[in-house]
Each structure stands twice: as structure tokens, then as C-alpha cells.
Design a protein that fits this description.
The chain is an alpha+beta fold and about 725 residues long. About 45% of the residues lie in helices and about 15% in strands. The strands form 3 sheets. Strands 6, 7, 8, 9, 10, 13, 14, 15 and 16 form a 9-stranded mixed β-sheet that branches. The protein has a 5-stranded mixed β-sheet with strand order 2-3-1-4-5, sandwiched between helices. A two-stranded antiparallel sheet has the order 11-12. Helix 15 runs parallel beside helix 19 and helix 16 crosses helix 18. The longest helix is centred in the middle third of the chain and has 35 residues. The N terminus and C terminus are likely disordered.
């Protein structure tokens, strides 16, 4: 036994002995290629040093991507978990504008739109299987999500190209066995996926013959960032260089060096020691984001994560109890840890609020069951919380007559209200309008079955077709249940309107069609196109930010109505104040960006807005010019308790339970709830709030009128008494 113990200590000595650490303090020549490293070669952080290292990793956008990928792969069965994980970020919008392009790739640049259309499909449904099985996450990052703003800032690359295409790819790969590295998996996937995509858009044998060269060219241009727990090993450094990859940003936790070397063992020990601190650091980071999200609406976490990193739950007990109990598995727990309850975070919507105007606000989000691993990304859930709270503040602080956006090339000064244009809510509305135009343009592509049928019905056999219209989004059916100081939103759909509209002042781009043909075409649009667009607006992932803003709008209107009736709410100081505060968009986004991209698309004849193709001998032209989103008016239908119970039996009990853990309602939706502290309001502020409400104003007018009547009456009596 003593001999075995001595051998064990000898094996572990390189990882713990100070003398050995000094011996490996100088990194190998190849490890410098990988950098930067959070932990340098020869170092082995311990004790209080570990949380500091973990914070540096999580606070870096690439480090956060790496941590989430590592955590996702750890959920795999033990025999499938990789020894090493790697996350690479690739972008593609440069293809259309790059100057130093080889002649063999010119056809790819000319067919850039086809490439960007085919790539996401190839990622979702690969044409060929992988050469071997390895842990993999591959997705085009959602261009409508603000959850990746930190990543785009770090990389200096936009999520979407000027045409609205999602252009940033996140590729996480893991090793498989001792001879298949995560770098091998990255290369296998990239070569196969890009090759298959190019095969689908190539039109000639000559173009197909250049695909291998084009893929090699893309390797050196597409890399935006890469991260891994270990730096490239000596073997992989040479492989990556040979393959030709180049990445502008890099982050590795610790150098690896050759297999079984002292530095390799030290790296493994460091990563093992960092596992728990990384989880704690990520929870703290997530908690801070949740605190900021609540602050968007002027609320506070009962257990502030900013001051108490260990307090991860807003409310661990059912809603009837007080907050700040042990850590819960409800909303905050789901957004800060792996315990997400199997919910699709992108579908979260604010559908319950209880506010008695005293010390706390109780709220709950509902969502759909997760479809895949990517939909359970906790950042998406935190973004849903942040955007919903920011939108709630926006809809309360601003006047409803500002709640619209408008994309019209003849109205450049009427894109969006100046104040609304500074908020995430305004961004959600404007980008939804932009997305709607893209949805319609793609839907009406004459090369698709639907598009071909549309063009047939509007009469392409009669000669050139010219039809332009205005299409906009408005509130649809809304059903709510108000129970005292609580609101349940049971149904909230968006509606799409369309009507023929000609826009003057665009020269050849304007459309002057025969009135009879216009009426016929408008009818076809109502029957075929509008229902398809309405379905997308209410269900497609790219419209999720709009739907979240819409639900917040409904809740805000209920709060406004209560305030106007003279009831005390936790938001009285915000209503009509114009004080956007933390709801102001703090990134580089500006409304003008959307409008400029819209005009660029019109000028360049992009298919999103204009379809021109030759069907037989007839030229078919479609021009979509104007649109908008208008949330200025809401008309909710109020349901009784019996109506609500028929619709979703036991919903109040479901929401109570969802404060502890994700709870499924009878309609299949999942609910997550929590509690926040309302800002303390003084008695004087409440009096001022009541005085400013409609009821307060009426009471004031009645009081003034009473005084006047009393004065008139008393004055008349006084005069009568003084009369002789």
C-alpha cells in the first residue's frame, strides 16, 4: 500500500509541487500561438485566486460562450462527454464586400444571397452525415435577439448583414476519444457544411470544380473568434495552421502543451479546480443581469445579486409567502443555472402581474416546452425578462399616441417617435416591421410553389403586373382576467392589416396600376398573403421580441387604467412621466440603420421588397413599399373567473406553484414566477399620484365646485342678511 501511495504522489506531483511549477513556468514555443490565456503556463491558481479567474472568464463574451458550451456537453451521457470543448464564431457578410477575392470565388460573391439562404438550411438538415460522431452545437445566432450584443461588441461584427440575414455562426465541438480532438471536429464540420452549401448554389461544372479552393479561402476569412478551456495542443497547433484557419479574437483558459506533459497535467488540475468557481461566477453574472432587468421597470430584487452573490433566488416560497428564502428553481433559478425546467426561453412572455401598491410586485412568465437544446440558452430567457421589463417601463412612461413605427420611403422624418426610438421596445417594433417585409418578399418568391400560385392568381398572363401595398401590424384578440390587484393575460394575438397604397416621389420605383386590377390583387393578398404573415408574426421565432413587447403593453395598459381610476400602484411615479431611465437602449443600434437598410434594398432591387422574374414571356414585378406597427390602441375582452377556469383550469394555483419550480398548466404552457420589491412611495407621493389620476382630477373638480357653490350660497345669504 505504501508503494502504491508513493507512486500516486509521484504522478500527481507535477500538478501540485511548487518545484515542478517552476520547472514548467516557461511555456512551450507552440503555446504562444494560441493566446491569450487567462491562466499562464506553470501557474496553478488556488483558494481565493479561483473566483477571480472564473470572473475573468465569464465576464468575457467568448468566455461566456465557452462556459455555456462546456456546461451543455456536461449534460450528455458520461460515455459521450468530451475531454475538451471548443467554440468558434464565424461570420459571412464579408463575402459580398471583400476586395482581395480570388477569381475562383467570384461566383460565390455574385451568389451571396443564395449562399446565405442555403447555409441555415444546411445547418438544420445536413446533406451528408459527419465522418464520425462528436459532440456538436451549430447554429446561426438569432439576429432579432439582443442576448448577443456583448458578443458582437467583443468581436466587432454585426449579427445580421445589411439585408437582414443572420450572418454569425456559433460552432461548438467536442473531442471524441484520444485521437479525435475538438479541432478535428471543427474542421470536419466546417469543410463538410460549406462544401454542401456551395454544391447547392453552384450552376456549372467549372464552379463546382473550384469548391475545394473556395472552402479553403473561407477558412482564412470567416473566423471571428475562438475559445477553449485548453489551448491547442502541440499537434493541433500544426493542424490548425495547416488547415488555414484564422481568428481575430481568441480566448483560452490555460495552455495545454503535449499530451501527458507536466503542463498538460497542470492544465487538467486547474480546469478541475475551476469547475465550481465557474458555476458560481456564472450564477453571479446571471443574477446581476436579472437585477438590471428588474431595474428596467423600476423594480428591485428582494435579494439583490449585486450585493449578495450567494442569494440567487428572488422568491423561493409560494407567492403568498415572503421573498428571500432558500434558492428556488423558479424564474430566477432557471435564468441563472442549469435548472431551466425544460422551457423554451425564447417563448417567455409576461402574462401575470399582481400589484397591491404596497411592498412587492408578483409576476409570472409563461412559455412553451423546449424544442431543442439551443432554445434553453438561459441568456435568451434573461433577455426576455430584460426586454419585457424595459418595455413595461416604456409603455408606462410614454403616451400611447407614440406607440407606432413606420417604414415608408416617402416619410423619412416619420420613422418612429424620437423617445420610443431610444428604447428596446421601439427597436422590437421597428425591426418587426423590417422583418415583415422580408417575410413577405420571401413568401412571394415566384420560384416557390406558394409564390408561383400567387403570381398566377394576380394575373401574370394579362401582361406586366404592378401592385404595391401597405401592410402593418396591430393588436388582435386580447382576453384578460382581472381579479382585484392581479391580471392574467389569457390570450394575446397580433393582427396584420393590408391595403393598396401607391407612394409618390420614387421615380421608376413607383407603381401606377389599373384600379380594377388593383382591387383584384388586393383581394388575393387578403386571401393568400395576410394569413401567412399573421401566422408568422404570432409564431415565428424572429418575431418573439415583438410579442414580448406586446404582452408588456397589455400589462402596462392595465396598470394605467388602475392608476386613472385612482387606485394606488407601484408604478404611479412612472406613468406619463416620460422618464425612460434604464429602458433606454444602451448599444450602438439606431432606428436610422433599419430605414437605411430598407432604402438600400429598394434601390438594389433585393428580393425582400421587389420580385422581378420572367414567367414564360411575362415580366412579373412586385413592390412592397410601406408598413408599420401600431400599438396605440388596445381593446381587451375581460373574462370572468368561470371563463378563465374553463380556458385554463387551476391557473392561479399553477402560478403559485411556479414560484418554486417550472410548472405546467393544463393547456401545456410552462410557467415561471417570482417576486420583486416595488420602490417605496411616500404618503405625499401617493397623494400627488392620486391627484394626477382621472379620479383624482374629478374629485378635485367636485371639491372646487363644492367650495364655489358654498361660497355662492354663503355669499347670497350674507347679502340677504345685510339687506334692509
Amino acid at each position: 500500500m505504501g508503494v502504491l501511495l508513493a507512486l500516486l504522489l509521484l504522478i500527481l506531483a507535477p500538478a501540485v509541487a511548487p518545484g515542478v511549477q517552476r520547472a514548467v513556468a516557461e511555456p512551450s514555443p507552440t503555446s504562444e500561438v494560441n493566446g491569450p490565456f487567462v491562466v499562464q503556463a506553470g501557474e496553478s491558481p488556488k483558494g481565493d485566486e479561483l473566483p477571480e479567474v472564473a470572473d475573468k472568464i465569464v465576464e468575457n463574451a467568448l468566455g461566456e460562450e465557452l462556459y455555456l458550451a462546456m456546461r451543455a456537453f456536461e449534460l450528455l451521457p458520461k460515455d459521450q462527454r468530451p475531454i475538451n470543448t471548443q467554440v468558434a464564431i464565424f461570420t459571412f457578410s464579408w463575402i459580398e464586400t471583400v476586395k482581395d477575392i480570388p477569381e475562383s470565388a467570384l461566383w460565390v460573391r455574385d451568389r451571396y444571397h443564395d449562399f446565405m439562404s442555403r447555409l441555415p438550411e444546411e445547418i438544420r438538415k445536413p446533406s451528408t452525415p459527419a465522418a464520425w460522431q462528436y459532440p456538436l452545437q451549430a447554429t446561426m445566432l438569432d439576429g432579432e435577439s439582443y442576448a448577443y450584443d456583448r458578443l458582437t461588441e467583443e468581436l466587432g461584427r454585426p449579427l445580421v448583414d445589411p439585408y437582414g440575414n443572420e450572418q454569425m455562426l456559433r460552432l461548438a465541438t467536442g473531442s471524441r476519444g484520444s485521437d479525435r480532438h475538438s479541432e478535428d471536429a471543427m474542421n470536419e464540420w466546417f469543410e463538410r457544411t460549406m462544401t454542401n452549401t456551395l454544391i447547392h448554389i453552384a450552376r456549372t461544372d467549372a464552379e463546382r470544380g473550384t469548391i475545394k479552393e473556395v472552402v479553403q479561402w473561407m477558412k482564412g476569412k470567416a473566423g471571428a473568434g475562438i475559445a477553449g478551456p485548453r489551448g491547442f495542443c502541440n499537434v493541433c497547433v500544426k493542424k490548425v495552421a495547416k488547415w488555414g484557419y484564422s481568428f481575430d479574437k481568441r480566448l483560452f483558459i490555460v495552455p495545454y502543451d503535449a499530451y501527458k506533459t507536466a503542463q498538460a497535467k497542470l492544465a487538467s488540475t486547474t480546469l478541475l479546480n475551476l469547475k465550481s468557481p465557474l458555476e458560481t461566477s456564472y450564477k453571479k453574472h446571471a443574477g446581476e443581469q436579472i437585477d438590471k432587468a428588474l431595474n428596467k421597470a423600476g423594480l428591485e430584487s428582494p435579494c439583490s445579486h449585486l450585493n449578495s452573490p450567494q442569494a440567487m433566488g428572488l422568491s423561493a416560497l409560494p407567492m403568498a409567502a415572503g421573498p428571500c428564502g432558500p434558492s428556488s428553481d423558479a424564474l430566477t433559478g432557471a435564468l441563472a443555472s442549469q435548472q431551466n425546467g425544460g422551457i423554451d426561453f425564447s417563448s417567455l412572455q409576461l402574462r401575470y402581474l399582481s400589484d397591491d401598491g404596497n411592498s412587492s410586485v408578483k409576476y409570472a412568465f409563461s412559455g412553451q416546452p423546449a424544442k431543442d437544446e439551443q432554445s434553453q440558452d438561459p441568456r435568451t430567457g434573461r433577455q426576455a425578462l430584460t426586454d419585457s421589463m424595459a418595455a413595461l417601463r416604456t409603455w408606462l412612461a410614454l403616451s400611447p399616441d407614440k406607440f407606432w413605427v413606420n417604414l415608408n420611403p416617402s416619410e423619412p422624418d416619420r420613422i418612429i417617435d424620437a423617445q420610443l426610438g431610444r428604447t428596446n421596445a421601439g427597436r422590437a417594433l421597428l425591426e418587426a416591421d423590417w422583418q415583415m417585409k422580408q417575410s413577405e418578399g420571401k413568401l412571394l418568391d415566384p420560384k416557390t410553389a406558394f409564390g408561383a400560385e400567387y403570381w398566377r392568381r394576380i394575373g401574370i398572363s394579362d401582361g406586366p403586373v404592378c401592385y404595391s401595398s401597405r401592410m402593418w401590424i396591430v393588436p388582435g384578440d386580447i382576453e384578460v382576467r382581472q381579479d382585484g390587484s392581479s391580471l392574467y393575460v389569457l390570450k394575446a394575438t397580433l393582427d396584420v392589416k393590408a391595403k393598396p397604397e401607391n407612394v409618390a416621389g420614387l421615380g421608376q420605383a413607383s407603381c401606377n396600376a389599373d384600379p380594377q386590377k388593383t382591387a383584384r390583387n388586393a383581394q388575393v393578398e387578403q386571401e393568400m398573403v395576410v394569413p401567412k404573415i399573421a401566422q408568422a408574426v404570432n409564431t415565428a421565432p424572429e418575431y418573439a421580441p415583438l410579442r414580448q413587447a406586446f404582452l408588456a403593453r397589455i400589462v402596462a395598459q392595465w396598470i394605467r387604467d388602475r392608476h386613472d381610476k385612482g387606485e394606488t400602484t407601484s408604478f404611479d411615479k412612472l406613468i406619463g412621466s416620460g422618464g425612460l431611465g434604464p429602458a433606454v437602449e444602451d448599444g450602438a443600434w439606431r432606428p436610422q440603420q433599419v430605414y437605411d437598410a430598407y432604402l438600400r434594398s429598394i434601390r438594389e432591387g433585393d428580393f425582400t421588397y421587389k420580385q422581378t422574374t420572367r414567367v414564360g414571356d411575362t415580366v412579373v414585378t412586385y413592390t412592397m413599399r410601406t408598413g408599420g406597427v401600431d400599438f396605440s390602441k388596445l381593446k381587451p375582452t375581460e373574462l370572468s373567473a368561470a371563463d378563465m377556469n374553463r380556458r385554463i383550469p387551476g391557473l392561479p394555483e399553477t402560478i403559485d406553484k411556479s414560484a418554486v419550480r417550472a410548472t405546467k398548466a393544463t393547456d401545456g404552457t410552462l410557467w415561471l414566477a417570482d417576486t420583486a420589491k416595488a420602490p417605496q412611495t411616500s404618503v405625499w407621493e401617493r397623494i400627488r399620484g392620486f391627484a394626477g389620476s382621472r379620479t383624482g382630477i374629478l374629485v378635485g373638480l367636485v371639491a372646487v365646485l363644492g367650495v364655489l357653490l358654498l361660497f355662492v350660497r354663503d355669499g347670497s345669504a350674507l347679502r340677504r342678511r345685510r339687506s334692509p
